[in-house]
Amino acid sequence: MSVERDPIIEASPDDAAPHLDPELQYRLRQQDLLSQLGVLALRRADFEELLHAATRLVAQGLQCRFCKVLEYLPAKNVFLVRAGVGWGPGVIGVATVGADLESPAGFALKTGKPVISNHLENEKRFRTPSLLAENGIRRAINVILQGDGEPFGVLEVDSRDSDEFLEQDLAFLQGAANILGMAIERRSYQSALEASMARQQLLLHEVNHRVKNSLQLVASLLHLQANAATSEEVRTALNEASSRIVAVGLVHERLYKADDVRTIDLGQYLRDLEQSLSAAAGQCDVRINAPPDVLIETDRAIWIAIIANELVANAAKHAYATSKDCVVDIELQRVGDDEVELRIADHGRGLPEGFNPNTSRGLGMRVVLALAKQLQATFNLQGGRSNGTELLLRFPLRVAA
Length: 401
Known about the structure:
The chain is of the alpha+beta class. Helices cover 46% and strands 20% of the residues. The strands form three sheets. A six-stranded antiparallel β-sheet has the order 3-2-1-6-5-4, sandwiched between helices. It has a five-stranded mixed β-sheet with strand order 8-10-11-13-12. A two-stranded antiparallel sheet has the order 7-9.
């Protein structure tokens, strides 16, 4: 091998074993560079950074100044210089090379075989592309970069010196191309997966949007029916049912506007419900105090909203002389890192003497107890005739499996 080389960064003398044959040292250095490239690829480096790093390492491995990754653009039948080292400004990401049989890279792509040309000025198989001629390139070696099913392009090393590329150099270059090929396939799979996930997310948001609209329609129909009812008992029952449906619909509204459909901000959700809770209880004054960023699973947020709905309705119905006098405070607060406490209190006439929620025949209280059990919550209902009624519900943010 000639000692005349393009000026590039070479391995430091400390890296070489002085007792080894220079040719063996050279090949061992190539294997070390392939290992470095493999590590970069496994670390899931940014794809563009990986391509540029690969060209630097390959140039070092073949002791050449010029190296480039040529991406094949089938629509134009050209190669785009996607990454490279040694080239001047206006080349990377801009310059193109013909992909026909008249160029070294095109010859490799069309024949499916690697190409070594140590004397481009005498080459009969293809012409020398203008990019190579303008940079004084005298020899070139390239291999195909395989993509996901179709070739991604070509990995090419070029040199101005009069040395020669050998078959061993081709093995090194093919090793680098194989590593890049796996990274290209992984990138293709990842892009397809991300596109699929984005589509599923879009569909899920659309479903939640439609569910919200459908529930809103049902709630409106129930409300209209309640207004037309002649029985106060029927009117109340229909309004309560409408309020429950609105509570579920508001969750779906939040879900189609959110990035994460698995959890919901419970405090914000309760604040969204404030008007609905008030209207369902005959314009009861519902005052909500809740901190932000209390994230909870979506299904459990619905249960909590329905509990609040039932208790506000009960307060308006039983705690005050008229619903217009009704005032209910709803407070949410964290208890440590893993639990939340919900307090719902009115200021009315309090619970009747001997009231036991566990034996109550009222639908609202039975709903509250059933949902509290689902929440794995501790349930404490208190209230005398002079100081109103207070419910304390403590539950974990996440339910144990």
